[in-house]
Design goal:
heterodimer; A: about 375 residues; alpha+beta; six-stranded mixed β-sheet; five-stranded antiparallel β-sheet; 9 helices; about 30% strand; B: about 260 residues; mainly alpha; MetI-like fold; 2 domains; two-stranded antiparallel ribbon; 12 helices; 2 strands; about 80% helix
Amino acid sequence: MSAALRVQDLDVLFGNDERPSHREMKALILPRTFDEPRGYRVGLADVTFSVNGGDCLAVLGASGDGKSSLLRTLAGLQVLRRGQVVVNGRDVTALPPEKRGVVYLHQEPVLFPHLAVHENVAFPLTLRGVPKRDAVRRGLEWLERLQVSDVSGNMPDALSGGQRHRVALARALCAEPAVLLLDEPLASLDPAVRRDVRAALLEARAASGAAMVLVTHDLDDALAVATHMSLIDWMTLTTPREPAALIQAPPSLEAARLVGIFSEITGEVVQENGGRCFHWIGGTLPAGELDAGPAVACVRSHEVTVERSEEIHPSTLLITDRRDAAHDVVLTLCDTAGGTVTVSTSGNTRLGVGDGVVVAIAHARVFADRGRPRV
Amino acid sequence: MTPRLSMRALSVVALTLFASAPLAMLVVTSIARGWFYPSVVPSSVDGGAWAELFRDASHRTALLNSVVLAVSTALVGTALALPLGRAAALSTRGVRRSVALLAFTAVALPPVALGAGLQLSVLTLGLGGTVVGVFLAHLVPALGYLTLVFLGVFTRWDLRLEEAAATLGAGGLERWRHLMLPLLRRPITEALALGFLVSWAQVALTLLVGGGAVRTLPLDVLAMLQAGQDQRAAAGALALAIPALFVLGVSRVAAGNTPAVVA
C-alpha cells in the first residue's frame, strides 16, 4: 500500500518575527520554499515519516517543540527551507495550501462566522462547483455521522465548544482530503466533551480513509485515536511506531519523559565483572550496553513491587512520604545515606510513612542522563 | 418614570434638538421670504431659492463636480486603503507604525497647510485648476482616514479564517469572494461613506488646488454666504447636507448584520 502522506528530510522552521501572522501571510502569498530563511531558524530537522490512508500518526511533543509548526508546514501555511511533502504520490512541496489535498484543523475550531453550520460544512464542495443543494445534502450526511445534524441551521456563535469541534471536523471531512492535520484538537476541552470529540475523531478516521496526523502533548489522546506514534525528541521526530511498542521501549530519556507515565530513578552505570550495571539506592538493574556514568531508569508503576521489610538490609529503604494518585500510590523513599527516590506503584497500597521496604523492579529502561537539549 | 430615566429622556431630547436645530433653520431659511428681525416666523414661504439653485447651470456644474469628486475619492480611496491597511497590519511593527504615522499626518495636518503643499505638487504635475488635480488633492486626506480604518480592522483580523478557507480548497480570489468581502462588508461600506464625505465637504483643498477654476457645491455655498444671499445659501447648504446624510444612512443599511471579523 503506498502512503497517502510521505514526508522526506523536512526542516521545520520557527519564525521569530514580532507577529506570527507576518510569516503566515508570507506563506499565503509567497512561494512555499526559499533558500535563505532570514529571520527563521530550524526547529525540527530531517523530519521523515509516512502515513497510510485510514491510519493516524500521533506526534507527541512538549509545548514549544514545533508540533504546530510541523503541521502548518505540511499544510503549506508556513514556509520551509528543505524537504519534500508528497500526498498520494504527488509532490506538493511547492504548491499553495488550496492545491495540496491537505486540510488543517486549528486547535480552536475556526468556523466562518457569516455562514450557518450547514453552509460552513458545504463550503469546500461549493468551491468545487457542486450545486448548493447537493453540497448541503452531503454536508448534512457528515453532520449526522458526527451527531451534530440538529444544529445544522444554527450560526457558529450559537454552538458549544464540542459542537464547534464536530462541525469543523465535518467540514474538513466534507472536503474529502487525502490528509487531515489535527492541531491538538482536544487540548482545551473538558473531560466529557473530550470523550465526545475523541469518538468523533475515531469515526472520522474510520469513515474518511484520510491519512491523519494528530499533534498533542497528551498520551491518552494519542492512544485513543492513533495507530502509530512519534515523539519530538532533541529537535527530531522519532520513527513512527505502534503506540504500545513505543510505550514499552521509548528510544530515549526525553522520549520517556514525553510519554509521561514513568517514574524516574536516578543512579549510575558502572562496569562490573565484564558487564554494566545500573546502581541506585534500592538495588541494581541491568544496564545493557550503556556507557558508565550518570543514568536514569524509567519504570512503570505496575513494574514496581514494594514489600515491607522486617529486617534491615543494605537495600532497605524508608518511606518518608506517601501520596495517593488516581490509580497508583506515589512513595518517596530514602536510604540510610540520605539518598531519596520517588516511585509509583500499583501494588501494595497498605504501606505508610515510616515503614521499611524493599523495592523489586521487574523491568526498567535505563538511559544515560544527558540533561535537556539546548533549543 | 424614575429620575434616572427622565434625565436620560431629557438628554436625548436636548441632543436631538442640538443636532437638528441647524438643519431646521436651514430648511426654514431656504423657503422663507421677507423674514426679518424681530419676526418669529417668516411672512411668507416659497421655493424660489431652490428653483434658482437648480436652474443655474453653474450650480448644476458645481453639483456634478462635487458628486464626481466624492464618488471617485470614495472608490479609489477604499480600493487603495484596503490593501495598504492589510499589508501594513500584517507586516512588522516598524512598517505598521510608519504607515500609521503617514496616514495620521495626512489627517492631522491643517487643511491650509496640506493644501499649500498639495498645490505645489499638483502644479508641478501640470494639473492645477483641473478636476483631476482636485481629485488627487481630495484623495490625500481620504486615503489617510481610510488607511487608519483598515489598519484597525486588519490589526484585529483573524488570519486563521483565511488559513482554514485555504486548506479547504479556496484560492486567493475565492477567499476574497466567499470569505473576506462578506466579512468586510461593514468596514468597506463605512470606508466608502467616509471617503465620500471627506471629499464632499472639502473647501480649502478645492480652493487651493482648483484655483477657482474647479467649482464645487461647498465653494458655491460659501460664495452665496459671502454675497449675503442667505436664502440661496441655505438651499445650497441643505443640498450639501442631504446627500451626506443619505450616504451615511445607506452605509448603515448596507453594512447590515455583518458578524465580527476580529479574533
